[in-house]
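Write out this protein's structure.
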Amino acid sequence: MIKADPNRVYAFGEPTEVRLEAASGGVVTLCHPRSGKGGCFLLRQSALPRLHELLGELATRLQALAHCGPEALDLKVIGSKTLVDETVRVGEALHLKIGKQQKISGGVLAYFYSDSGRLRVRASDVAAAPVVASPPRKRRVLIVDDSAAVRKVLIHVFKTDPELEVVGAAESANGVEKMIDELRPDVITLDINMPGMDGITFLRQILPRKPVPVVMISSLSMEDGDQVLRALELGAVDYIQKPSFGELETVAPQITERVKAASLARLDQRRLGGAHAPDSPRPLTDQALDPSIIVAMGASTGGTEALRNVLCRLPAAIPPIVIVQHIPAVFSAAFAKRLNDLCPFEVKEAADGDLLQPGRVLIAPGGYQMRVKGKGPFRVQVTDEAPVNRHKPSVDVLFDSVAEAISGKSSIGVILTGMGGDGSRGMLKMRENGSRTIAQDEASCVVFGMPKEAIRLGGAETVLPLHDIPGQLVQWLTRRA
């Protein structure tokens, strides 16, 4: 047994028992049960400002020891209410798996067993301080927009949701780095065109140093689509078209839902600011793929980058591919054009009657539903219909049509990162009809919503990290001699 010194990080590769005792503050532990690696630190209340630094160091060391991602590490915390609440907030920001939380008053004496993650507290020390069940913590929102009227509207929108709390508002991105340190937001809403430092510059320069999920809320036109796509490439989680005052009652619930989902998003530190994001991943093979199979794909939050990474790794000779990406109406054409510039095959925004053909990807236009119709040759039907699952286009609409029109063995369904459950039921129908299906795994999703629901319903034949999905498609689509 070793006795822990206050405010010092311990990480163990071998089974170790640690005694942690303090008159104030608390105990924070992390464990990777599968490998038996664990660690901890004893934090005095006076050292609370160092919590992010110490927990980040512990998480980094254990990931190296256990060869795992942060989501595989179990976090436990015992201590004062302030310490527990702040540890949970930091743990969520680091994408750790939140486990046991125990709030006590006074001192703490605990024993940590690094191989199992067990944390034992001496009952006599906490008998007078029972566990307190905490209500769900509000997600802290920082608004950045140069329009005072827009800031006022967004504050009003977020106040209507009991799970959101506006902690600050700024008219420029110039001072936001300091506000992040002081206010510790869970999510930032960011305009693109602002005086001084604009939103794109913020994402490129500040986000790598201050990784906080960002939702772009702007009123750009179709001609500005490249700026939106650039923002998403630089690490923004989502984009929302700025609503008019007349639309507020209708769109407010959608805005709050997407901001809440973004606040829980996993940020890929490697691509923040674009420093390590290649314009176009290399294709895995030059071999032609089976042109008789139709691939249907669906994505939402985080999907523009996920789709780019999948499509750019496919060869020029692809089978027909149809895609629904939840995207504002004015930007689906720009998104298709961007992919067309990057990929070795044609990518276009779908028009009613477009033919599904090898070497072509059709992306559903924003604000419309898209189906596959016919008995061969197949075409897309693009219609102005009501939203399904609150989405237009809807992944379920596309997947349902594929299940109905195409023999199961002649189609593949892929569902990628996104909030909610759109596409999950349609994927189940495809699989029940004989299609092969893939869902993106939790660790590589920006938001693990749509794939999670597809997996829960049994619609996913296989679950893969994003970087393995192109290889699986190539394997399934390679013709055997």
